[in-house]
């Protein structure tokens, strides 16, 4: 239960910090943080939580990460379901807090609410296949970074930095394409509040990240298995 509480809080912080930066600060007139600021914010949520709860739950914060770690032989199947539920609920709680804050401003307009999308709902107008490929490849690389940084032979104490910087880079590349998911819990939390098109397109932001994560887990397990 302590691990699940940690995953709930960590995913809440990821959504509140990352999506919150996009909703509240990215387009602020003349002083907005833009794409770069949002990318850094997502990376910082992971870095801060890695050192806060990494020793408790492993700091997955993401169903695709949990599934990828399972595929790579680093996580037990029996824990997969509870972790995913805790992550999705944490994401929804983070989005709920963000909604309460954002709606406190006069003239609040939900807009995209940092939801992920493709086609007309992609920031750059990218189509479904481009979005699918982007999410699959970005999640694949994210899991390679995670599996490598947390390997028993990796330098100790630096995993949080490597993973956070990796997520920042992924956002710098892919925000224009899909608003960057690589995380089904993050996508679900925002889609539930936006509804409509965001829920219709949500399937892609479960399918592509999970497929990329499983592939990365298998590839890394082949390249560099943990010693028995």
Which shape, going by the Cα principal axes? globular
Distance between the terminal alpha carbons, to the nearest Å? 28 Å
Number of strands: 0
User: In the CATH scheme, what's the topology name?
Assistant: Glycerol uptake facilitator protein
How do the SSEs run, as a string of H and E?
HHHHHHHHH
Descriptive notes:
By secondary structure, the chain is an all-alpha fold. It contains 9 helices and no strands. Helix 1 packs antiparallel against helix 2, helix 3 packs antiparallel against helix 4 and helix 3 packs across helix 5. The longest helix has 24 residues. The relative contact order is 0.19.
Describe what is shown at a glance:
The protein is mostly helical and 228 residues long. Helix content is 69%, strand content 0%.
Characteristic terms for this protein:
single chain; 228 residues; mainly alpha; Glycerol uptake facilitator protein; globular
Topology:
Elements: H1 2-25, H2 34-57, H3 63-71, H4 80-102, H5 128-149, H6 159-178, H7 184-194, H8 196-200, H9 204-223
Helix pairs in contact: 1-2, 1-4, 1-7, 2-6, 3-4, 3-5, 3-9, 4-7, 5-6, 5-9, 7-9
């Amino acid at each position: 239960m302590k691990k699940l509480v940690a995953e709930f809080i960590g995913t809440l912080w990821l959504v509140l910090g990352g999506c919150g930066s996009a909703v509240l600060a990215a387009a602020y007139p003349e002083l907005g943080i833009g794409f770069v600021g949002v990318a850094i914010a997502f990376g910082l949520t992971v870095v801060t939580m890695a050192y806060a709860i990494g020793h408790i739950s492993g700091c997955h914060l993401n169903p695709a990460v949990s599934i990828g770690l399972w595929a790579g032989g680093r996580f037990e199947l029996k824990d997969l379901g509870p972790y995913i539920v805790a992550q999705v609920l944490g994401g929804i709680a983070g989005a709920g807090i963000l909604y309460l804050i954002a709606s406190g401003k006069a003239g609040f307009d939900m807009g995209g609410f940092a939801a992920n999308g493709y086609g007309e709902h992609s920031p750059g107008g990218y189509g479904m296949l481009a979005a699918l490929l982007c999410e699959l490849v970005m999640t694949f690389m994210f899991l390679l970074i995670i599996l490598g940084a947390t390997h028993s032979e990796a330098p100790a104490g630096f995993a949080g930095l490597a993973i956070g910087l990796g997520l920042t880079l992924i956002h710098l590349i892919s925000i224009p394409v899909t608003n960057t998911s690589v995380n089904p819990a993050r996508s679900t939390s925002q889609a539930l509040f936006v509804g409509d098109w965001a829920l219709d397109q949500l399937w892609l932001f479960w399918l592509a990240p999970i497929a990329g994560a499983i592939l990365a887990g298998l590839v890394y397990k082949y390249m560099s298995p943990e010693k028995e």
